[in-house]
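Appendix B: complex inputs.
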Amino acid sequence: MAEVRLKNVTKMFGDLTAVDSANLTIEDSEFIVLVGPSGCGKTTTLRCVAGLEEPTEGEVYIGDRVVNGVPPKDRDIAMVFQNYALYPHMDVYNNIAFGLKLRKMPKDEIEERVNRTAELLGIHSKLDSKPKELSGGQRQRVAVGRAIARNPKVFLFDEPLSNLDAKLRVQMRAELQELHHNLETTSMYVTHDQVEAMTLGNRVAVIDEGVIQQYAAPQEIYDYPSNKFVAGFIGSPSMNFLDARIKEEGGNVYVEGDGFNLLLPDKITDPVEGKSGKEVTFGVRPEDLTAEQTVHEGDETKSFDTHVLVTEPLGDEIIVHAEVGGQEIVAQLDPRVDIEPHQDVTLFADMDYIHIFDKNTEEAIV
Amino acid sequence: MFKKVRGSSLAYILILPAFALILIFTLYPFGRALWTSFHRINPVLPGNPFVGFSNYTSVFSSYYFVKSLRNTLIMIGFTVPIITIMSIAISRLLIENFYGRGILRPAVLIPWVIPSAITGLIWQWLFNGSYGAINALLSRMGVISDYIPWLTEVLTAKFAVMVAFIWAQLPFPIILMLAAMTAIPSDLYDAAKVDGATAFDSFRYITWPHIRTMAVIVIIYETLTAFTSYSIPYAMTGGGPGTATSMISYYIWSLSFDQLQFGKGAALAAIIAGLSLIFIFAIIKAIPSEIMLEEE
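Resulting structure:
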């Protein structure tokens, strides 16, 4: 097991910068997730650690060793690929044993390791099957098994669950979690699925356009996104963003926009004090909005008067798409509230969990 | 009207045009050739009497048949393995992403678009004993002191014809191999690298299993092509010196259109068709069944 460290890693493909001076430390036995939209550079980052790509600049450390220029086989890593990458002409046994054979491991030890791995992953009865005879979930297990059997210092996962159907994905996600709990091998996991990122990662690195936007524990990323991109990427449905400006009046600080005028709680006013008139982006998550039947006096400083456009009842919740001052706002509400399309509804924001971003830099202010 | 035609009758109607073409241009000529091989056909004599197997026996017992069959088999024995191996090697190089690949890939196809008689003439010129480019090149490089009469010595003429044949034949197998190699997911090579495979291991465990079915197809196709090769040797050497480069397909032409013995020519053609079938079955038999049964 080992720590993995990326120091100012940049990867260019011609003029295109795929990874832009990435700095990342994965502690020994930590499970971290790289998440971002497709083409953001997360897979390239992983491939730089694997040795399948060489960084244009910067160093990759595995343990105390700089591994730039070291071929993948000598980095003591194992990788699980999106399309499983099982050798189609070998049976499951040989797929798992291949790396061990190439390392000239004694035959009885190979057998022991393959059997132990197959037992662990519940694919023992499939050892004689060819990959094409297996289901998607079984193939994925073999791919994971091939990585485990080698007992490497670092696991690298490149979107390993994205080819599975939704139900299987949830199951495999839990299995991977348990596996990491048992093996405690340092792991890097690439995905575009924020749910996988949140559930699997000890820490999550959100990447966009080759740049690591934020690297923190999942809850911290959810609660305190460092910029508008992270705020919009993590969470489903996405955070609402409304054009607004700061207003100071009678010792209070408000965030004001078309159709709303919200009073900021005292504890979060510090960063915006004295910035009256500043154009900002106001952010509130759909799950931090509620619809109250009765409106009290003073409530207008924490509520939106909206006109409902569409409702999506999901059973355990209802997603309401509404309009406030010409801007769209989405709310995730209790399914038992009675809301119909084309109705006017007052939505309340939980003001303890609101976000304010600089309109130009998109960095978080509050 | 179409509503009335359903199920299998519609299917038969739809394959009718294709079947008609095969009937007219393949089955009828083949049947006609078979018929011809059992008759004596002479354009200046009346009647086409049935002669049984006498055309066959006379072809089999002719010195020229044995000689040209031997030449053809030697040609197959050398060129087919070389073409197969070279097409794999060249495709393996062309699949790499290197500077100039965009020019080199189409350039490989050039021999394919040159009519084989022209190919023969080009190589005849290159191998020419007095003014050929190959002699000029070799002598300037100091490899030879005297010009070699490539096309008029038995061994060198055989060699020259094979070189020209290989050159002309390579493009198609290269395309087949490139197609097979392009279809291999790159993930597999990445996985193999991580697993610790060398370039040779990658070829042996990933590339080869994916292209071996195609290799069998190339071997069969090239065997048949070499078996019926005619224009390149004829354009380069006219079958000479002596009978050194006379191929069996040239013998068909010579019997039929030079000596106007259509019956014997047809008998020889039938013999070649039979031998070709035997070749194909022998090749398929010689190959482990798992390769032929693979879908991937």
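The interface with chain B takes residues 50-52, 71-73, 77-79, 81-85, 87-90, 98-99, 102-103, 132, 146, 150 of chain A (CB under 8 Å).
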